Amino acid sequence: MNAEIVAIGSELLTPWRQDTNSLYVTERLNQLGVAVIFKTIVGDRQKHLVEAIRNALGRADIVVIMGGLGPTEDDLTREAVAEALKIGLKRNPELIAELYTRFAARRMQITRNNEKQADTLEGATILENARGTAPGQMLDTIYGEHRKLVMLLPGPPSELKPMFDEQCMPRLRELLPQRHIATRVLKAAMIGESAADARIAPIYQQFKDVETTILAHLGDIQLNLVCSKSIQEAAQGRVDELAGRIEEELEDLIYSSQGETLEQIVLFYLELRAATLSVAESCTGGLIAERLTNISGASRSFAGGAVVYSNELKTEFAGVSPALIEQHGAVSREVAAALAEGIRERCKTTFGLGVTGIAGPGGGSEEKPVGLVYIGVSDGESTEVVEKKFTGDRNRIRQYASQQALDLVRRRLM
Amino acid sequence: MNAEIVAIGSELLTPWRQDTNSLYVTERLNQLGVAVIFKTIVGDRQKHLVEAIRNALGRADIVVIMGGLGPTEDDLTREAVAEALKIGLKRNPELIAELYTRFAARRMQITRNNEKQADTLEGATILENARGTAPGQMLDTIYGEHRKLVMLLPGPPSELKPMFDEQCMPRLRELLPQRHIATRVLKAAMIGESAADARIAPIYQQFKDVETTILAHLGDIQLNLVCSKSIQEAAQGRVDELAGRIEEELEDLIYSSQGETLEQIVLFYLELRAATLSVAESCTGGLIAERLTNISGASRSFAGGAVVYSNELKTEFAGVSPALIEQHGAVSREVAAALAEGIRERCKTTFGLGVTGIAGPGGGSEEKPVGLVYIGVSDGESTEVVEKKFTGDRNRIRQYASQQALDLVRRRLM
Lengths: 414, 414
What we know:
The structure is a homodimer. Chain A has helices at about 20-30, 45-60, 75-85, 95-105, 155-175, 195-205, 230-250, 260-270, 285-295, 310-320, 320-330, 335-345, 395-414, and strands spanning about 1-10, 35-40, 60-65, 90, 120, 125, 135-145, 145-155, 180-190, 210-215, 220-230, 255, 275-280, 300-310, 350-355, 370-380, 385-390. Chain A has 3 domains: about 1-175, MoaB/Mog-like domain (Molybdenum Cofactor Biosythetic Enzyme, Chain A), CATH 3.40.980.10; about 180-255, Alpha-Beta Plaits (2-Layer Sandwich), CATH 3.30.70.2860; about 260-414, Alpha-Beta Complex (Maf protein). Chain A is an alpha/beta fold. In chain A, helix 9 links the parallel strand 13 and strand 14 (about 300-310). Chain A contains 13 helices and 17 strands. The interface between A and B is large, with 72 and 72 residues. Strand 2 of chain A pairs antiparallel with strand 2 (about 35-40) of chain B. Chains A, B: GO terms for molecular function: hydrolase activity.
């Protein structure tokens, strides 16, 4: 079984907006063993909609149509599906009553155009929308002698996602042949995509029944393993076996075997060891603290720290002596160590982390080029400093530096 | 004139990857007065590719095909275009020679499959690729009695973007009727999309020749004004006139009239007033510092500050008295003011900013619910505190709080 996703809305054809619902729907369909073979994005013109829907019906078993169910003149999905399938469209009195009740409950005046949201395709099952006014619809129908499942879903993600999970998924599970999909997500830090692939390709190529995808993003590698079988245990066994073999190969480069983020892992190990962390950030400028505090419950292990952009603040908040900065420069192995040691003392934490570097685009020299970063971590007894030379723009250098810093703490905790 | 964009690659049909090239290409095509009417995303199967390309040729004047030009068996774009247009495909000896030279220069062994990148469509112009091995191709041809422009471009954005700008744009400018497009981008902070639209719709609706798009994202509103005319000055005059009218209506809600970010504007005004800023962040946990330091040159006006997640650090780094925290709670008007005043003194800056709040999901109470945030700003003479109740998840609350804090500083500087 395969599917096509049709995303509707002229705003999705501008340089500023992009369909993202389809990623979510694809993930869910994949869980049912359904592959997405086409995605089409089309504006609010009935002629174009009918063409897109007919194309989709002609080549896919399942057609998921998203958007264009609202009350305005531009919302033409219902009309277009009726035309494409040559079926009727009737205003459903029960749905109109519901619309009036809903508007009244919010003390809002209902306008006439809202009634078109009650238009129902002949033979369709209504999908209730608890979070918006436009209900969805689902059709189990015949097109060109083939059976087709057609879903009409609202465009806003906050309405589409629960509707798909709560109403489409159970129906699809009933209608589709039973497949069991097992997945694993492994993550590794500070290894390039091609370097990782060179090491693990000989392994995953032996697992023809597991689909392995490598995603790389700013010092982070994500390995997605997916296996589909008629028996759940068999599928799970295969992905687990492959995951184990990859973990053996990449060893401590792998920081997560269940998809957690690096900051989640760092906080998890800190808590496990009853340890706490503080940071003194120069070139990352708050990025490491921001990443950690974005995790709920971070305060149990992360005390905080300082953004020490100026030399004065390196002294004021992390006790780095002006003489040391004078002697070695603010971007140096010595200052990174002093930042880590100083912030640890000031914050009374188990570990202190210090980062200094040149994020660019200005400020580089031949001796200390843009991208040079020193990261220090201290536990009071010993201080370790790594020197890195990252390439790319300011954002990329800062992201890599934060990734390297968090990974350094993780390794210290292992 | 209109266009269809066809993005090719099975990875673009997974839950993890998304075509983003089309946003860039759309922006460029719009600059030429060309509207994108369809986007199709298709996997690496020749049958599907041919179908997608034929559909596109049947309905659009310009067909931009991205991806599938590499050396592997999965790279089928050239073959599919040849089949769709029923034209020949020939291995180009000059391109083969270039490929061999390129590989030799990098001291890499060329493999046989690389030669297919030299396959050229009958009648095509070769688009050189300085950043990769796969050249692009451009065809000016006839399909179904209509003239069509077809472009084959490499998938990696780092290759596609310069190729489109340097080689496609000049050719398209020559081939297309001359249109002049003027644009303006206005930005406003801390106003909802529907509230903004209610105020400005009566204005922009009078400018039928200017297309106005409103984008909203986490407390930030972006208004895109686009006008296309045969004379540049006329188009520019209209967008400037509309921009002026919108600025009059929204007054100081508008922080940028040329598309700058809020953090850029804050840093610009700080520098203009020869003023400096420091921050003490509790609930935003480094996000404000991170946003400011992501701008190159931030160090001229932004000294740094502290991430004071724990109460101890509020005292240690911003001198907030434990008694004050005890009396009013860490999330209070009084502590926000003390954070702003304390960090300003410690960092010796013109302004101090203090943020405390409950980002959730835990930690809320009836009296102090999740989303409650206090933001203080002090210049040493007076301290202003705003109280806000944001809704949504942890990330959203933190983003709104950082936006509100930066906007508060901006207003103080106006």
